[in-house]
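User: Here's a structure from my thesis project, written as structure tokens. My advisor, Dr. K., wants to see whether a designed sequence matches the one we expressed. Can you design one independently, without my sequence as a hint?
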């Protein structure tokens, strides 16, 4: 997971999202410092552009939570949840 991005319109690192292989289901949530969910996605093609309701969020650190299901080498689906942070630089 990228730990930072810069949504400033220069077409370099303007969005943030999840990447991976073999992922069957995905739920991504981003929270602000007060624990309010400000963005969510459910596909590898969903990317956060650093806005809430089309308004740019402040340069800050945001918490993300990703839950996903994937094909394991054992032949069954495995579900994992990970939590981390992403920093927006403006």
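Assistant: Designed independently from the structure alone:
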């Amino acid at each position: 997971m990228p730990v930072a991005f810069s949504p400033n319109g220069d077409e370099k690192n303007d969005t943030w999202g999840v990447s991976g292989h073999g992922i069957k289901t995905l739920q991504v949530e981003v929270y602000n410092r007060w624990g309010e969910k400000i963005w969510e996605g459910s596909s590898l093609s969903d990317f956060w552009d650093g806005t809430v309701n089309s308004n740019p969020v402040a340069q800050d650190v945001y918490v993300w939570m990703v839950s996903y299901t994937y094909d394991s080498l054992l032949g069954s689906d495995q579900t994992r949840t990970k939590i981390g942070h992403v920093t927006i630089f403006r």
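When you compare it with your expressed construct, this may help: The chain has a mean pLDDT of 95.
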